[in-house]
Design a protein that fits this description.
six-stranded mixed β-sheet, seven-stranded mixed β-sheet, 3 domains, Rossmann fold, Four Helix Bundle (Hemerythrin (Met), subunit A)
């Protein structure tokens, strides 16, 4: 199936200046030659040099064929293409019909429609990208903020692969020496000292821990930082929610309990994605319907990355006292009505006048620094759930092997087998070890045409 020549629209459908149709596979150049009238396509075609011509609906020598568009055809010959195989990209006029007709013409001469992410999958299988780099391509496509783009492109350029190699290479060297000692059992000096093995394993554990510590940053870069506004009824949560978004998204009214459900909105602020949640007011002895809203509020609070805990001069209490898993910023609202707040560690703001909003944003940005987003972006380590699962399994295997070596000598053969298992877990992160099931799960989130 991977030997088929595939075709897909590589740009979004819709009106635009141009569209790009990608044709890739062993017959890409030959198929393009049957459709394209201009400079002849064939074995002598020059790679990476665009040529202008007319594209026909099917084999141009067929009497029923007709011209469908003026295009630029860009041949990208193996192995110097995105997929690592012969590729031709047609730059045609934008709009739905012209691009669809170019795709149909390629199918008419034998190309198969590409599946989701199939071009990138071929790039991986042909050694053009590691699996974590391929995932970075998807992150780049779905990015909502500058920070996410920067992290994805750094990972695409090999940031995570560098970190994984720093873990793998010492372990591979260790495994090689252990296996060598098994081949020369008569020569005692070839054995690798146990304390040296343990030392190398502990260093690898520490490096894996460093990567695992970056996992929250990867999630936040992809999904956004979830900020929950919580506090008693009528404390100004909805007003602050609207002020932060700079638009009226939540209903604001003087009647307490106006907000009964969670209202959420996304915002990109200075290159970072935030998801703000306006919630029902927290108070004792609520009615049945209000209690349902409060239950949802506590659920959001428990899932939050950051909590803005609100109070106001009329109600200086910020809701029931409890411990919070996420960092908390205490905010005194309605400062335009009372500027005599003396509470420490509390920001005074007014959603009406804008007083204190810059200081609140500064406090939010300071809290965000603790999530290590900038470090993840710089390193190019934007972990996802798959990476996290495999690295955690690798960490567990390393701990077991260290315990075995420190408690009793399991022998080089057992040590080598367990070390191979660790390397296999690491290999699944980069894609040096993979299964068809793994590839299906990775590439199903890709769009067709990439």
């Amino acid at each position: 199936m991977d030997k088929d020549t595939i075709v897909a629209l590589a740009t979004p459908e819709g009106e635009g200046g141009l569209a790009v149709v990608r044709l890739s596979g062993p017959e890409a150049v030959a198929m393009a030659g049957r459709l394209f009238e201009g400079r002849r396509f064939g074995p002598e075609i020059e790679s990476h040099k665009a040529v202008y011509g007319i594209l026909f609906s099917s084999n141009k020598e067929n009497e029923t064929s007709y011209p469908i568009d003026q295009v630029l055809a860009l041949p990208l010959l193996a192995p110097h293409s995105y997929t690592g195989e012969d590729t031709v990209e047609f730059f045609c006029h934008g709009g739905r019909m012209a691009a669809r007709m170019v795709v149909a013409a390629c199918r008419a001469v034998g190309a198969r429609p590409a599946g989701p992410g199939e071009f990138t999958r071929r790039a991986f299988l042909n050694g053009k990208l590691s699996l974590d780099q391929a995932e970075a391509v998807a992150d780049l496509i779905h990015a909502e903020s500058e920070a996410t783009v920067r992290g994805a492109i750094r990972q695409l350029l090999g940031g995570m692969d560098d970190e994984l190699s720093a873990i793998e290479n010492p372990l591979l060297d260790l495994l090689s020496r252990i296996e060598g000692s098994l081949e020369f059992v008569e020569e005692e000096e070839t054995e690798v000292p146990t304390d040296e093995i343990v030392g190398t394993l502990k260093e690898s554990c520490a490096r894996v821990d460093e990567l695992l510590a970056m996992a929250p940053a990867g999630r936040l870069l992809r999904d956004g930082i979830h900020v929950v506004l919580a506090g008693p009824p009528n404390v100004g949560k909805s007003s602050l929610f609207n002020a932060l978004l700079e638009e009226d998204r939540a209903i604001v009214d003087g009647e307490a309990g106006t907000t009964r459900d969670v209202i959420s909105a996304r915002l990109v602020h200075e290159g970072t994605v935030f998801v703000f949640h306006d919630t029902a007011g927290l108070r004792d002895d609520p009615g049945r319907v209000e209690k349902m809203g409060i239950d949802r509020t506590w659920k959001k609070v428990n899932e939050a990355d950051l909590v803005l805990l609100l109070s106001c001069p009329d109600d200086p209490e910020s809701g029931p006292e409890k411990s919070y898993a996420a960092p908390v910023i205490r905010v005194m609202t309605k400062a335009d009505l009372d500027d005599k707040n003396n509470k420490t560690n509390t920001l005074c703001i007014s959603s009406i006048t804008g007083q204190g909003l810059p200081e609140l944003w500064a406090a939010i940005d300071l809290a965000v620094r603790g999530f290590r987003l900038a470090e993840a972006v710089t390193m190019g380590v934007v972990l996802n759930e798959r990476h996290l699962h495999k690295l955690a399994a690798c960490r567990s295997d390393l701990e077991i092997l260290i315990h075995e070596l420190e408690s009793h000598a399991p022998g080089d053969e057992v040590t080598g087998t367990m070390l191979s298992s660790v390397l296999s877990q690491l290999g699944e992160v980069s894609g040096r070890v993979f299964t068809e099931q793994l590839l299906e799960s990775v590439f199903q989130r890709f769009c067709v045409g990439k």
